[in-house]
Amino acid sequence: MRVILHSDLNAFYASVECLYRPELREVPMAVCGDPLKRHGIVLAKNELAKKIGVKTGEAIWEAESKCPGLTLVAPQGRLYQRYSQLVRSIYEEYTPYVESFGIDECWLDITASGRDGYEVAEELRLRIHREIGLTVSIGVSFNKIFAKLGSDLKKPNAVTEIRSDNFRELVWPLPVRDLLFVGRQTERKLTLMNVRTIGDLARCGPEFLQKRLGKWGLMLWQSAMGLDQQSVARSGDYPPVKSVGNSMTAIRDLHTETEVKLVFMRLSEEVAMRLREQGLFCSTIQISMRDNELFSFERQRKLSRPTQCAFVILEAAMSLYNDQQYKNRPLRSLGVRGVDLSWEEGGRQISFLPEAEYEERWLEVERTVDDLRERYGEEAVLRGRLLSDKALSGLRSYTQMDVPTGTLPGSSASPHLRPAKIYREVV
Amino acid sequence: MTQRIMIDVLARFESGRIRPLQVIWHDGRKYGIDKVLDVRRAASKSGGSGIRYTCLIAQRQVPLYFDEWENVWWCDSKD
């Protein structure tokens, strides 16, 4: 039987901030996106804030209404990446099969070591606390789904083992939503079928679920029965890229087509540049939109031929925008994604149509711009239109301004500590 | 509360490892390191984590921390 561990770094961003600024452990604190850029949601919170009811993903105003005086800290992506890597290097001492699930979670397959899973998990938990200063919750089981479930059962700083002889007692009474890959929509469908717990799901039987939910239903039943066979990827093995996309929350709501076009232009350029960097072409363009009431919707269109050209992507994005029925809603965020990817080397069908020739010429221009940007900086060459509204275009030279900062009163402002950027002082 | 005291360290780079030889305090006083008793990664009480060198200085065990990312040395000090 396989021995799979799932390790989850508890309140990762907040824990790293508290590690560097121990005084933040004494006050309710949350790591949040920048409210001025309208990224103002809680990304992580410390134990004190959690006890007061602050939740990850909620808006800053909601968190503050529950916890007046909540200390808000700006995220430091590079520092978190570094700590994630440090922890990963400890995992890799135990097995080459370490598969990341986000920045703060990993699966480990330690079957080949011949060691007891619980013992290894305890050792890892203690080492990570002692050597890195962070706490982890680890689930130990015989498949990935139950290992992940186990790491969610006891938090923080704990190990939970789900074995083949106790999973019915431990897992089956849990709500079906706790199962990996069961989202809001699937939960809704299952509730209509009176399936509320993982045990209910298991008792449904594979034929019934497959009939109602297709292949997905069968997969869910296997997960509930502990029959999941997914393997843990080896370190350094990455699944092939399925899409290249980018999204942006605009600095203010978008009301006109001109404003929407400006944001799509910026996003299309980034997507096209990343496609070219990786030698990929996309055949389908998807756009996603979210209005100021947080209603989201997506649309997609197949292109007549694969592309990696920004102006083709922009044209497709704008035609999708113009064709949808929610055109008059003020939009808060937009996204563009290229899917249905193919490799450059695979060769493309040559077209003698004038528009194809025009596209090829444009592609040459965009490649030249890529070279210039690589040599002289990201904003060395810009479309003139983007300059008409720098804030909306999300140009770095504009958006990096005006982030409010402050320091905790009484903190020793050592220049050598990476200072946490505090949005607002502690009251 | 434990405070982080930044220090300068005179060190020798040996093949594949660093050996601290002398601590230079912020007021210029120098302390020779008699022996390195232990080297391992560890979290520091004053914040952050790094490579911890447990050193013998004037008959006392003193943990020194090295952050290989920031290239800084520090030790913990209680108020």
Sheet-strand content of chain A, in percent, reads: 15-25%
Q: Mean pLDDT across all residues of chain B, rounded?
A: 91
CATH fourth-tier homologous superfamily of the largest domain in chain A: Reverse transcriptase/Diguanylate cyclase domain
What does the overall shape of chain B look like? Answer: globular
Q: What's the total number of strands of chain A?
A: 12
Which CATH top level class of the largest domain in chain A fits? Alpha Beta
Order of helices and strands of chain A: EHEEHHEHEEHEHEHHHHHEHEEHEHHHH
| Count of discrete alpha- or pi-helical segments spanning 4 or more residues of chain A | 17
Tally of structural domains of chain B: 1
Q: Percent of residues of chain A in helical segments?
A: 40-55%
Name the helicity range of chain B: under 10%
Beta fraction of chain B: over 45%
Q: If you consult CATH, what is the topology of the largest domain in chain A?
A: Alpha-Beta Plaits
Q: How are the strands of the biggest sheet of chain A laid out side by side?
A: 5-6-1-7-8
Q: Give me the count of strands of chain B.
A: 7
Report on this structure.
The complex is a heterodimer of chains A (427) and B (79). Chain A has 427 residues and is α+β, with helices and mostly antiparallel strands. Chain A has 17 helices and 12 strands. Chain A has helices spanning 12-20, 47-52, 60-66, 77-91, 117-132, 144-153, 167-170, 184-192, 198-204, 206-213, 215-224, 257-277, 310-323, 354-376, 384-387, 390-393, 396-399; strands spanning 4-9, 29-32, 42-45, 71-73, 98-100, 105-109, 136-141, 158-161, 243-254, 280-291, 296-307, 331-343. In chain A, strand 10 and strand 11 form a beta hairpin. In chain A, helix 4 packs across helix 5, helix 10 packs antiparallel against helix 11 and helix 12 (257-277) runs antiparallel to helix 13. The longest helix of chain A is centred in the last third of the chain and has 23 residues, at 354-376. Chain A is globular and about 65 Å long. Residues 398-419 of chain A have low confidence and may be disordered. Chain B has one domain. Helix content of chain B is 0%, strand content 72%. Chain B has a 7-stranded antiparallel β-sheet, with no helix packed on it. With 79 residues, chain B is mostly beta strands. The radius of gyration of chain B is 12 Å and the shape is globular. The chains are: A alpha+beta (427), B mainly beta (79). The interface between A and B is medium-sized, with 18 and 19 residues.
